Amino acid sequence: MSQQPEYSDWSQLIDLVKQAADNDQHEMLLTMLMTPDEREALVARVNIFCELLKGEMSQRQVSQMLGVGIATITRGSNELKSRSEQEKETLSKLILK
Length: 97
Description:
The protein is mainly α. The chain has helices spanning 10-22, 26-33, 36-54, 59-66, 70-81, 85-95. Residues 78-97 are annotated as: Disordered.
């Protein structure tokens, strides 16, 4: 009998998070799935996108403000550059206060 993992790709995890959110269990799920360091890194990642989308600071300034390496900022910048203007606009509406 060949055993396979229950989850084998990203879209299945997205569906799991959607299901948890529909049942108001997303906070519990995400907290249990991620270590404190991973949660902290995710907060930093969201802040990187916020600052890059605002465009008010250089990557070096963002790096210093958030206490992350310049390479981390560059990876976020490269991810944004790979996205369409519509995706960037959608992300802006989601994360900019």
